[in-house]
Amino acid sequence: MEHDWNVLLMGGRELPLWGFAIRATILYWMMIFVTRLMGKRQIGILTGHNYLVAAGIVAISASRMTNPKHGLIEALVILLFYAGINILQSYLDIKFPKFIGRKPIVLIENGQIIKQNLFRALISIDELMSQLRIQGAHKLSQISYATLESNGKVSVTKKFEYQPIQRKTLKLPEQDLNLFLPHFLIYDGVVYHENLKKLGLDTDWLNNKLLEKGISNIRNVFLAMLEDEGTLYVSVGE
Question: What Pfam families has UniProt attached to this entry (predicted)?
């Protein structure tokens, strides 16, 4: 019996059936524990490193469940190490998104396909059309913007006349609509000067807008984003 427990923990040639059952149970609960430890980001936002960690955890657990030569303890250590690396990577991705994370790639802008960005994203026309259909956009003529997000999914913005709630129905003037993708202006207290310049704005305009919202220090702003129709969204960090 002592030998069986040693094989269960450290690995060996043979393992009794009850040992496989115990090993599988422990690894199953360990996978649940490390998944919860890594947070909802691991499940809901599948970035490149999240995918690799998930695949690695499954592969390690499966091999340790079926191969008696592999030890249970080393599997538990590796799973915890994987979880720690993923948490660190996610933190760096949030803290330094410009250096760690992948930026979204605009595939369609103002109804026009951007050929060089398709090559950059390694997406064919057939793959693009497939993703658009999944989003309920079956005609290119109806699309204003399509963006390949950092999680690998394509988001779609339809032209105003094809959106569920039409401005024509609400009798709103079309010339008031200035549809464009949101632009980051501030992230974690850092001003995105290149985006301000691209929009024809400056820091004086930004400071005045923040003062209108009662914010005098840019460093207190976690996120500021210029949205559709010139709306400035601001979130103050705690």
Answer: DUF421 (PF04239)
Q: Are residues 27 and 106 in the same domain?
A: no
The Cα 72–Cα 25 span in angstroms is 11
The answer, yes or no, to whether residue 105 has pLDDT greater than 70, is: yes
Q: What is the radius of gyration, based on Cα positions, of the chain?
A: 25
Q: Is the same domain home to 88 and 32?
A: yes
pLDDT digits (tens, 9 = 90+) for 46-104: 555 566 666 777 777 777 666 667 677 878 888 888 788 878 877 777 777 665 556 78
pTM (whole model) above 0.70: no
Same domain for 141 and 121, yes or no, is yes
Mean predicted lDDT score pLDDT of the chain: 76
**What mean pLDDT comes out for the span 190-212?**
90
Number of domains in the chain: 3
- Domain containing 127 equals 102-173
Are 89 and 162 found together in one domain? no
Task: Determine the Cα–Cα distance for residues 132 and 107; give it in Å rounded to an integer.
Answer: 11
Is pLDDT above 50 for 172? no
